[in-house]
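Reopening this ticket.

The earlier resolution said the output was attached, but the attachment link was broken on my side. Pasting everything inline this time so it's all in one place.
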Amino acid sequence: MVQPEETPDGIAPFSPGRIGAPPVFVICNQWTQALERISEKEVLNAMRDFVMGLLHIWKQDKFEMRQRMEANKDLEKKVKNLDREDQRIHKEIQAMDKKMVLFAGDGDDLAVAGPAIYPSDMSIDLQASLRRIFEAMERFMDSSSRAYEELLQRCEEEEKLAQERGRGS
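Inline output:
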């Protein structure tokens, strides 16, 4: 006699076990149900948050790079103007028969900012995002492992039942 398959919410409406299907069908059905209970949504959301953080940093880096490029263009214009002014001054100095002392500025106030430095909170956000990804993946793996263990246990039970049926006939 075939016993009805029990599920957490009662007897399954359609079950390969209830209709006496071979164990492989019962196992496949149970595996499908286990996979449906496991949600990858948490892992995907954590990954999406991480990618959004990276995108934000990338956009900020691009913005800062554009600012540096514009500053470089302004710097080039200032240097050209200074070169013209310097040439004019040199001509005046030569014309005055070297009576003036040559004066040249060091130009430190025109220095361009170095590489972009991100605020430490952005790197902390990325680290936290990565941590959330791995924590979500760990929970997903635990759920998958538990589902596999349950399925393995059911398979062993089915195997024992099949052996008992074989002995009983």
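Reporter confirms the inline version is readable. The first strand starts at residue 6 and ends at 7. The chain has three helices and two strands.
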